[in-house]
Amino acid sequence: MSAATKLRQMLQDPETFLLCPGVYDGFSARMALSVGFDCLYMTGAGSSASVIGHADLGLMTQTQMRTNAETIAGLCALPEYGSSPIPLIADADTGYGGPVMVARTVKQYAQSGVAALHLEDQIQTKRCGHLAGKEVVDRDVFVNRIRAAVNARKEVGSDIVIIARTDALQTHNYEEAIARLKEAGEAGADVAFFEGLTSKEQAAQIIKDLAPMPVLLNMVESGATPSFTAAEAKEVGFKIMIVPFVTISSASFAMREELERLKSEGTMSAKAKSLTPQGLFGICGVDASMEVDRKAGGKSFATGI
Known about the structure:
Elements: H1 3-12, E1 18-23, H2 26-35, E2 40-42, H3 44-52, H4 62-76, E3 88-91, H5 99-111, E4 116-120, H6 139-156, E5 161-166, H7 168-171, H8 174-186, E6 191-194, H9 200-210, E7 215-218, H10 230-236, E8 240-243, H11 246-265, H12 270-273, H13 277-283, H14 286-295
Parallel strand pairs: 1-2, 1-8, 2-3, 3-4, 4-5, 5-6, 6-7, 7-8
Helix pairs in contact: 2-4, 5-6
């Protein structure tokens, strides 16, 4: 079963709620997979910070985003994490151009093993959804993006899930944002992504107004959206909750703390020292690599590592 098909089955199950930690590279994906999450999310903001060291201002190219998604999706498909791939939902920004480019993006993400992607209605020079000063394209341009994505999916015979995201609440109003998501659903989008909702009462109204379309919650702590726990999001009626900053925020605080210690004291903390090379490689699947060598008759790891 493909990751996309598996995700579709999850979305169709009325009892399923997907809590997806944001990951930004292979190591953060390995950590999330080792904890046992059923679905992961590749964050655009985290990818931009990690890959090019810049703010999420639309600077990552389609090739860079697709390559990062392919790396993570490949790890999600490793047998050590289950008999079928763990679905990966990936940020695809605006699709990186007009309908032709959107179609290419969908086909390449599908070929890379991505289970779902989200396409938004911002202009090409986009920015993080929780920053001010955003601009969105006309509604028909956005719907054309979704239609191009759906057509591309059909062309390659993929089950990849298309998630329609709108930022129109900040640029227009609630009614326009809902209208855009409804038209996206009519064009073939599978899931609605209402970015930047501002209250829990509004969240409940979104679920009601878009029913029966599944709705995704983007839980960016300290952003425009109030804080939801997974249990609260499920109770309101969301089908998916992505938490984009969970790995990169924890990593940033831990790294700075260790680097400041090293700078001031010239040594690492006892906790940091406890991660041995073998421990690091264990997280990264060295046992599976050693088994591949053994089954082939190799002796590269006969004495261990």
